[in-house]
Known about the structure:
Mean pLDDT: 80
Distance between the termini: 51 Å
Number of domains: 1
Number of helices: 8
Radius of gyration: 35 Å
Strand content: under 5%
Largest sheet: none
Amino acid sequence: MIKFFRKIRQRLLSENKFSEYLLYAIGEIILVVIGILIALQINNWNERRKIEQSGKEYIKEIYKDLKIEITNIDEILNSLSEQYDGTEYILNVFESKNKVVTDTVLFTKNHWEPRRLFIIDRDLNTFDKLKSSGQSSLLKNDSLSNLLDKFYKNFDTRISNFKEYPLQIRMDLRRANFAIGNLKDFKYESKNAKLSSAYIQEYLNNEIIYEHLLSILRTCRYNTTFFKELKEEALELINLMEAKYPELKNK
């Protein structure tokens, strides 16, 4: 093709057809420009296609992350529920008329529940990485990005709040617990462990422990409400994504 155009130029120049040569030169320049524009357009199209594909892959990963978050929240809610039930059981004995313990094994099991420490946290996920790299625009969906941002900010707030007072009050209860009883009373790893009668009596007459138990019951109740709301937000996000990207349901 290049040889063909070169021959045309040489023929026009040899025949002194300068006006025709000029028109030909302009035409050749136009063809070159058109070729460049077409190449740029193709390159831009390929880049857009890559970006769109990346966005779709990120959507899939975010969808998977949300499913994992719901599982994690369910585990948190289950732990809060078990702790609430155990604490309520012990408080009922505290508030009973004669504070009589008829089942020492059951009392022992529930006695340890309010003191149980469980750490609430979450791992960095796809959306976190997109935000930190400034690439959240790859999702091509501002409303979804905003909802995801709101959800994870709420999640982080719940985690931060739990690490403050609720976790601290459980530590305070542990310290109050260890001030009474003896080493045998704290061998709770055994499935059929029983607290001593002396320990139970002192425990049930300790007003500081009673106050701590009330506080733990309240934190369980409040945090259960908060994490249930968080789970609802996650489910709404999943429903929104499934409506917008039906193919996710098959993943």
